[in-house]
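[Automated response] Your request has been received and processed.

Submitted sequence:
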Amino acid sequence: MLSQSAVAGVQAAPSQRMASIDVMRGITVAFMIMVNNNGQNELAYRWMNHSSWNGFTPTDLVFPTFLFVMGISLVLSLKTRRSRQASNTQLLSHIFRRTAILFLLGLVVNGFPWFHLGTLRIYGVLQRIAICYLFASLLQLFTRKVSVYLLLTLLCLAGYWVILCKLPVPGHGIPGKDFALLDPDINLVAYVDRHIFPHRLFEGTRDPEGLLSDIPSFASTLLGMIAGQWLVSTRQGTLKLRGLLIAGFALLVAGALWSFRFPINKKLWTSSYVLYAAGWSVLILATCYFVVEIRRRRGGWMSPWLAFGANAIVAYVFSELLSSAVADFHINSQQSIQQFVYQGFFQYIVTPAFGSLVYSVVFAVVCFVPVWLLYRRKIVIKL
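Generated structure:
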């Protein structure tokens, strides 16, 4: 369904949009598309790949930042919908419909192009977004108190620490005592996923978007909601900026300190990872807020990010479908379209790593074309 004024995907738009949030969302989605589509992962720069296990790279920042921005957007969206006298029944209908569409889109992305239903991956990026969106939206209907959001964030992070570090894994014992803490395969997250969806996990024995790790992912969204409440407050812009800077550095320090006992790990979405990634997200938000809202540096430089941000889910889904197509369809018996293009041209640009980066940029530009056309026509795909 197309709409000239509707809000797209997860980022429901208020009538008076905060442009800095749109810019941040657009940058996040563009970088997400790039890091998901390296020419060849093993040859790419390290910062263009996720950490193999414990650790942190800029690529590991993408997904939690998207959830963080979604949390902000939910606050702005609800404020506008309430001002338009939307009833709880209307809001609930909207929430459940969007959740279902996001989850189903995630299944389509996972299955495309062959849709092997017997091994179809159930977990995924869009599925996690749908789950976090559902619970965050329902929470907002219940309360808009920052103290409640903060308490739930702490409970999610502390509870997840207990799950991974204190509870025994059946058949293996206590983490850190009977086996290494955060062992890739011996942890409760992987254990639960293997019993719920055997043969449907992204990495065979585990899944980076597994069920239990939705708990700390929700905390990433809650932190965005707290930031959103700070932004819509009546405080002066400079005070809001100062608060963001203080919060950003505090979260970075808290995450780094906790990592000595509970390592930063994107694939398990550890609590220290939530805090550390949120620190960077808040500092990026502060930068965008300073440039766009306080210094009022607006103009043509914003257009690409606004285009990506306006149809963020569309851009992501298009990129994933295109990525699957070029990876699964073959030029010959030995090379997929993706391998043929990268190995035949891009890997020879300066170095293989630089060529991989250029491939990522070109792929993002290709994905930019449809959302730019939509943006120019002021069309937003309404889920």
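Summary generated for your ticket: The two ends are 7 Å apart (CA to CA). Confidence is low (pLDDT under 50) at residues 1-15.
If you did not submit this request, please reply to this message.
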